[in-house]
Amino acid sequence: MTEQPESVPVESGSGRVLVLLDGSRLSLAALEAAADIAALRGHDILGVFVEEVNLLRSSGFDFAREIGASSGATRPLDSAMLEMRMRSLAEQARRSLQRAVASRGLRQALKLCRGSVIEEVLGLAGPDDLVVMGRVGWSAAPGSRLGSTARGLIRQAPGDVLLWAELQRRPGYGVVVLLNDDQGANHRALVVGIEQARRHHQPLTVLVRSHGEDGQEVVRAIEEQLIARGAGARVRLIPRASAAEVARLLRRERPAELVVSRQCSVFDEQGADQLLVELNLPVTVTP
């Protein structure tokens, strides 16, 4: 593993924005979102580029092939060409990071790693850090809408994770926060939802998964928290249904962005990943 900082050191423990860069179009879009958030919060931004060691190892096998994302054509996975591509992508990541922060006055650095993407990011991220990444990277299977790295980090990262999706925002389409009725009114997901709604000047909706009318007390507590924070929102109860039914209810809300806690019981249910696949929009997963 190597480290090659850009401009100034970016220290851990101070609340940073970490953005995963892999040269894909979606990671570059995630970089712009990360830079906006870092500027809003006054946080440092750390770009992370990981040379995936398993991919490099597989290039040593004669039977290894890569498939063109657009052409579908197969060709040998050549180790020398792959190393050259990695170096080119790392340099592209460096230039993209410099451009993104140039007009925002941010402290920034680029971390170059070789290993497993999930393990490297978990070794860098702290509980106060926000990890921003595209829902899929350049190595994802064609047609994939949620990559394996995204699936791993939303469950294991110590802090917030923003999965970015290129979805054109439309007026009136707001931010939706999904909570359980036992998660409390002052939950991190609610704080993030308020921040995102303000950042995009969009309405906020809080959906509380509840077994019954007992959830009304939680609704009132959330409404009091919103008033205390000077935020307006629509708060309503929804049943603790299956992940597929939750996805259907969320689509009815037509959100531009979703905020959900990884402690939400929907992640304990079969098909939870499919919920995120079906909702092709930016999703922030909080502790």
Strand order of the largest sheet: 5-2-1-6-7-12-11-8-9-10
The class by helix and strand makeup works out as alpha/beta
Measured as a percent range, the helix fraction is 25-40%
Q: Strand share of the residues?
A: 15-25%
Show unreliable segments.
Answer: 1-8, 59-73, 138-144
Radius of gyration, in angstroms, nearest whole number? 20 Å
Shape descriptor: globular
The overall strand count is: 12
> What is the count of DSSP helices, taking H or I runs of 4+ residues?
9
Could you tell me how far the N terminus lies from the C terminus, measured between alpha carbons in angstroms?
28 Å
Q: What order do the SSEs take from the amino end to the carboxyl end, as H and E? A: EHEHEEHEHEHEEHEHEHEHE
Overview of this protein structure:
It is a single chain. Helix 1 runs parallel beside helix 3 (79-102), helix 4 runs parallel beside helix 5 (148-156) and helix 8 (243-253) packs parallel to helix 9 (272-278). The protein is globular. With 287 residues, the protein is of the alpha/beta class. The protein is 38% helix and 22% strand. Strand 8, helix 6 and strand 9 (204-210) form a beta-alpha-beta unit. Strands 5-2-1-6-7-12-11-8-9-10 form a 10-stranded mixed β-sheet, with helices on both faces. Strands 3-4 form a two-stranded antiparallel sheet.
